């Protein structure tokens, strides 16, 4: 992506150039993963899955997965390194195998952006049941910032909601995501930001939302 394209998408989508570029590289990484033999071992979930699969307006910094079958860590390391080597602006900083998580950190630095930004790749390897057709299915990922499309194993809305409800303490972005899921499932209700100061909501959420959605949030902020 060049500066002119990023500027045009910034105006069209009402979001920063950083978020535009981030989403392009997220799509690149997802396409490489799910078009490889390793892809069958992963289910895409979380806020980025909500955006790229289900149409959430919230941009997201991380790629979150659950592992549904065994995979070779060294092969995944090589795959991610190969992807990074194809793009001058993309660098694989590290990969770490933790007890219950495979973690990779990428760094993106485009010449026309003022600073670099991270993309986190995190896959839970906890022994949790995932049933195909109930908890996840094959769906198409797409984005307005690129012509790429990806056929991926994606968690159901209900499963994403279940996982987000289990996060303690609740995070501002998860409150927004659960509201969005509720809308998709036909449950109409306002976002509940009680317990959070308006300035904290704006700080943590607004950089990930287009301008029109920021205005929507304002009406649901706690009154001071």
UniProtKB/TrEMBL annotation:
It holds the Pfam family AbiEii. This is Nucleotidyl transferase AbiEii toxin, Type IV TA system. It comes from Candidatus Hakubella thermalkaliphila.
